[in-house]
Structures are given as structure tokens and as C-alpha cells.
Amino acid sequence: MTPMSNNEYLSRLQFSDELKELEIAKKASGLNYEQLAQKIGVNKVWLASAFKGQQWVPEEYCVKIAKVLGISVEKAMFLNNHPYKANTDPILYRLHEVLDTYGPAIKDIIHEQGGNAIMSAIDFGLDVDVTDDEDGNRRVIIKFDGKLLPYAKRGKYPW
């Protein structure tokens, strides 16, 4: 994978100009993602992802975003388009590395504890926090919360 700068990444997106305008409005508001998410009634990680062009935002939330940021609804409605998603920056690369390294072990444990099933990415929650450990080191905590979906027992399969 060839590393890209954030500007190169954003320029790949269909709505790069609109995303820049949204970021300017967010900065002008003085709100961080957590504060903005609380005012809108959504998860901070989901909102930050939407502001990077990686989430579909329902119309009602486009209206709320516009109201809180003091911009026209039209300026936020581009978020109601379904995005193309990709991995390009170092943090995203590390997340892929984590799944490459630990994914098979996570899969085995899910099967050991949950049977012949998978984790949903649709009925799914995600949270991220940065905290200090007992030695004063900054730590990132990522929590995936996906519904366990057993494989259907249809047809002539042994499960």
C-alpha cells in the first residue's frame, strides 16, 4: 500500500470541497466531535467518520448538523449520499495490521464461544477512547459490539 497524505485522500472523494467546507464550519463552531455528537444525538466516532466522507447520513441528521454548525441545510445534504470507502492513512493501515495479526485468533474465539456464527457489521456498535494507563502512557481503546449471527440451518448441511 502506498501511503497518501490526508489531502490526497480527501481529493479522491467525490465531495472533497463540501467536506472541507464542513470541516471549516466545525472549526468555526469551536466544538469537538464529542460535543457536536452530543448536540446532534449520535456517536462521536460515527460523526467523525461522516465528516471524513465515510458514512451515509440520514436527512434528519444533515438538518441537525446544519443547525448546530450554523450552515445551510444544502451545505450538509451531500452527506446523504452513500460514500465510497477505502483505507489509506497510517492509523487505518494499523487497524488492518491488527486484524491481519489477530483476526484469525478472534475468529477462532468467536467460534469457540459462539458456535458456527459471524459478527454482524450491520447490527453493530463502535466506540473509541484515548486514556492513560497506570504508567502514564496514552492508550487507545477500541470496542467492537456486533450481534452474533448464527449461520442458517437450511438445506442438507451438517450444521
SSE inventory with pairings:
Layout: H1 6-11, H2 16-29, H3 33-40, H4 44-51, H5 59-69, H6 73-76, H7 90-114, E1 117-132, E2 138-150
Antiparallel strand pairs: 1-2
Number of strands: 2
Strand content: 15-25%
Largest pleated sheet: 2 strands, antiparallel
Task: Give the radius of gyration.
Answer: 19 Å
CATH architecture of the largest domain: Orthogonal Bundle
Strand order of the largest sheet: 1-2
Q: Could you say which overall geometry the principal axes of the C-alpha atoms support?
A: globular
* Poorly predicted tracts of residues: none
For this structure, the CATH topology of the largest domain is: 434 Repressor (Amino-terminal Domain)
> What's the helix-strand series?
HHHHHHHEE
Mean pLDDT: 90
Distance linking N and C termini = 39 Å
Structural class: alpha+beta
* Count of alpha and pi helical runs: 7
In words, what does this structure look like?
The protein is of the alpha+beta class and 159 residues long. The protein has a two-stranded antiparallel sheet with strand order 1-2. Helix 3 crosses helix 4. It has helices spanning 6-11, 16-29, 33-40, 44-51, 59-69, 73-76, 90-114, and strands spanning 117-132, 138-150. The protein folds into two domains: 6-80, lambda repressor-like DNA-binding domains (434 Repressor (Amino-terminal Domain), Orthogonal Bundle); 90-150, Cyanate lyase, C-terminal domain (Cyanate Lyase, Chain: A, domain 2, 2-Layer Sandwich), CATH 3.30.1160.10. Strand 1 and strand 2 (138-150) form a beta hairpin. The model has no long low-confidence stretch (mean pLDDT 90).
